[in-house]
Design a protein that fits this description.
Layout (H helix, E strand, L loop, with lengths): L3 E4 L6 H12 L4 E3 L6 E5 L3 H11 L8 E3 L6 H4 E2 L3 H10 L4 E7 L13 E5 L4 H9 L4 E2 L14 H8 L5 E4 L10 E4 L6 E4 L5 H8 L3 E2 L1 H4 L23 E5 L2 H17 L4 E5 L11 E4 L6 H16 L5 E5 L7 H11 L4 E3 L1
Parallel strand pairs: 1-9, 2-9, 4-7, 6-10, 11-12, 13-16, 13-17, 14-15, 14-16
Antiparallel strand pairs: 2-3, 3-8, 4-8, 5-6, 6-7, 10-11
Bound molecules: threonylcarbamoyladenylate and magnesium ion.
The site of magnesium ion has 3 residues, from loops.
């Protein structure tokens, strides 16, 4: 199949959105930008279309998809027993990087929800995404548009790299604004519970709801605790070269990474380093990439996945990363980075 690229970096192109909507309505796949990462869209109410997503990504079929809507009112058709917390969160954070788990209605096929009786719903803060959702029928299932096991795509080139020839269309909206996936909150049992950290922090949710928990499996090293979001259970992206996080006081982190890089150089092994605008000049004997500035945590989130992809295109035999425990998105950034590192952390 030829994958058509529609360029919409400067906003909505009505004719392009019509063509993309047509594809979705007849059961095809269209990748599109959102404010978090690129999504791989299909009609969420069409089981065959949803199944195509799993095939294109190579995704296990028990890992449910998020249904994207363009208006709050759309929720009534796909969810039942919607609790008052949902409206409070929507008023505070939608459109935006928050996904709510609700009880599903009968119109949502089990193919979309990975066999669960709940449905994940999100209203994205991206004009192209919302125009596409409306053109495609109003209910678009969309996981991140990467091959399963690869970093989520933050620009159209990443999607094309993974999906060219496999999907009908990619809408190129340029670089995304946030760069890590939405926060997921489960509203189906008792206290609202964070199943995946994201841009919307626990403190921000607490501020609206007063009481929020975090899925215990996310906070624990105990492998017997199963995360409630099936996708958080799977082995996650690991770069080709082993990734090791070095954490501690900044000066000591730099010294330790430099010592390790020197040892590697003596053995003829190339080292990669993930540093920041502030630290990148301090490293020697390494291929150094800056993830962003410590004074701008949004820049760190935005570049995380792209930098991991870049290192896969280089010839390093090990990558050391600083730790980025930033105020708002630190939990989300470190959740992704620690998974990519397979929990390899050196504390100095
Ligand atoms: O920011 C985002 O959320 C992006 C953009 C494209 O919107 N989408 C995204 O989708 O990250 P995906 O498929 O990569 O991650 C969805 C996560 C998975 O961990 C999945 O297991 C979980 O949401 N999930 C979906 N439906 C669920 C449900 N009913 N109950 C529990 N977890 C669910
Ligand atoms: Mg994903």
């Amino acid at each position: 199949m030829e994958t058509v690229v529609e360029r919409m970096r400067d906003g909505i192109d009505e004719a392009g959105i019509r063509r993309a909507g047509e594809i979705l309505r007849r059961g095809g796949l269209v990748a599109f930008p959102t404010e978090t990462v690129y999504g791989l869209g299909a009609n969420a109410l069409d089981a065959d279309a949803a199944e195509k997503i799993y095939r294109a990504k190579g995704r296990p079929s028990d890992n449910p998809l998020i249904v994207h809507i363009a208006d709050w009112d759309a929720i009534g058709k796909i969810a039942v027993d919607v609790p008052p917390e949902a409206k409070l969160l929507a008023d505070a954070f939608w459109p935006g990087p928050l996904t709510m788990i609700l009880k599903k209605s009968a119109v949502v096929p089990l193919a979309t929800t990975g066999g669960l009786d709940t449905v994940a719903v999100r209203l994205p803060d991206h004009a192209v995404a919302r125009a596409l959702i409306r053109a495609g029928g109003g209910y678009i299932a969309a996981p991140s548009a990467n091959t399963s096991g690869r970093p989520s795509p933050t620009r159209a080139e990443h999607v094309i790299r993974d999906m060219d020839g496999v999907i009908d269309m990619v809408i190129d909206g340029g670089d995304v604004r946030i760069g890590i996936e939405s926060t997921i909150v489960d509203l189906t049992e008792g206290t609202p519970t964070i199943l995946r950290p994201g841009y919307v922090s626990r403190e921000m949710l607490d501020g609206v709801l007063g009481r929020v928990e975090t899925d215990r499996a996310l906070l624990s090293e105990d492998e017997n605790l199963r995360p409630k979001a099936p996708g958080m259970r799977y082995r996650h992206y690991a770069p080709n070269a082993p990734l090791v996080i070095v954490e501690g006081a900044q000066q000591r982190v730099r010294e330790r990474i430099n010592a390790l890089a020197r040892e590697n150089a003596e053995k003829g092994r190339a080292t990669g380093v993930i540093g920041t605008d502030e630290s990148q000049g301090c490293y020697t004997n390494a291929l150094v990439k800056s993830i962003g500035s410590r004074t701008d945590e949004a820049s760190i989130a935005r570049h995380l996945y792209g930098i991991l992809r870049e290192f896969d295109d280089s010839e390093v035999s090990v990558i050391y990363s600083e730790s980025f425990d930033t105020p708002q998105m630190g939990a989300a950034i470190m959740n992704r980075l620690i998974k990519a590192a397979g929990h390899q952390i050196i504390s100095v």
